[in-house]
Amino acid sequence: MQITKKRIINDNDRRGAPGSFIELSRGKINYDIAGPEEGILTVFLNGLSTPFYIWDKNFYPLTASGFRVLRYDYFGRGYCDRPEKIAYDFQLYEEQFLEMVEKFAGKAPVNLVGLSMGGLLSVWLTARHPDIVQKLCLVDPVGFYFKLNWLAKAMLSPKVVGLLGPVFGDAVVLKGVERDFYNKKLFPQYRDKFKPQLKFTGYTHAVTSSILNLFTVDSYDSYKRVADSKIPVLLIWGKKDKTLPFKHHKEVLAALPDAQFAAIDGAGHLPNYEQPEVVNGLLEEFLSR
Length: 289
Prior knowledge:
By secondary structure, the protein is α/β, with parallel strands linked by helices.
């Protein structure tokens, strides 16, 4: 197996990158914002591994329709800084989210649209900050928690990832990303945008640390607190999802009984990318109501 050599990201790497950059307390973040400034800000939160281009087919149509939308990359992904000697846990993502919201929305409430891990984060953030969330949309969200056995936890540990990541990491990540698709014809163009971030150190640590620190935490209480808050919720799920199978929508709806639900035909784990016209219509209707 060939060992993949990584390097530390720098400002030269960021030249020509999409969007803009902002300095937060933990480092530089890549973001994109558009739409009329007087509108309520809608924040898109990405999944575990993909930069904000995952929202390309939603960001531009919604801003063209008059919505103000912010999307940004998490630390460790895309062209963002990659602090390695930290845990990628709920507190880190909360800190990043609150800093971004303060800079672009001030004290005004925002709408959240979270995909997969971004759905889990959206629930966690809404449960703790119901005063700043007006509406919540979850797209194939991570549910309450994953039960990882001792071997899985060992394989995701920093020591093992440091040893095996340079050899197997990129191939494993790309295989997992391909699994997200129902329509495989869309994958090559998606993969070509995905791969540049793999050149830089810190990506594998960010992803594996996130799995260990977010996916293994029981978030049922957060879901219930969102339900009790009576904040409007829209739940969207791709019927052909292999990453988080469609049947899991039932446990999420059990925790969020008042949520509006939409099942998306012809879509896997990324219905917003595979069926954007359908999802955009749902988002526009929900956010305008």
